[in-house]
């Protein structure tokens, strides 16, 4: 019963936010899965994303739009967007960082990898704010030439970051003072974050700096200090009760929207 209270509170907050979204609220694109799914009588390929991502964007005052992972097409949507969220999902193909797939690494999802790399590059070129979550952080790091640890338990000798199938863990995080992340969260120590990942950052990509760590040394956040807003975290804030990262993304999107207003007009 105790776990139901925060869930009901989040639902009320989301419904309240929906009814109060202003005209011209920033539009946030969310990268989505392309996977097999079942609902009702159907069992077919689908484009989907856990609902809590979209709810968090709505509570923050944004309009969420799911982006299908179609390379060569998906980046065209960015002309109509004000911000980008690269969401969690399957492992990034190790070939992208010069390694062979290990025994604990999931099969490559080549189309999603390519689509999100293209999205990221186009979004940065367009000056859009970017938030990466879990896989999103790993993809940003790999896109910048960094690498990943393919299976953390073999290095750390514990499974604290992903304690069981479909079950989120929790661990404290230390945040770098003076970082964008510290400003967003308003603190440099977080007692517990929702976590579910078996991979992590190894070599950090060009232009990125680490801005948070777990107690075991795992990099828990990276950011690009040269960009107005490019922040990525290894944990799953959509599963917690702190919407600060989503609010920061939407706030940054509001700041870029006026300069991009012409790109949102629909030709007649």
Map the helices and strands.
Blueprint: H1 4-20, E1 27-31, E2 33-39, E3 42-48, H2 51-59, E4 63-67, E5 83-86, H3 110-125, E6 130-133, H4 135-143, E7 148-149, H5 152-156, E8 169-175, H6 180-185, E9 189-195, E10 200-201, E11 209-214, E12 219-223, E13 230-233, H7 244-256
Parallel strand pairs: 1-4, 1-5, 5-6, 6-13
Antiparallel strand pairs: 2-3, 7-10, 8-9, 8-11, 11-12, 12-13
CATH second-level architecture = 3-Layer(aba) Sandwich
**Could you give the order of strands across the largest sheet?**
4-1-5-6-13-12-11-8-9
Mean pLDDT: 91
Order of helices and strands: HEEEHEEHEHEHEHEEEEEH
Characterize the biggest β-sheet: 9 strands, mixed
- C-alpha-based Rg, rounded: 18 Å
The rough form would be described as globular
Secondary-structure-based class equals alpha/beta
Q: Helix count?
A: 7
Which fold does the CATH topology refer to?
Rossmann fold
Oligomer: single chain
> What would you give as the CATH superfamily?
Class I glutamine amidotransferase (GATase) domain
CATH class: Alpha Beta
Our count of domains comes out at 1
Q: What portion of the residues fall into strands of 2 or more residues?
A: 15-25%
The helix content is 25-40%
Uncertain runs with pLDDT below 50, 5 residues or more?
none
Q: What's the count of strands?
A: 13
Distance between the termini: 53 Å
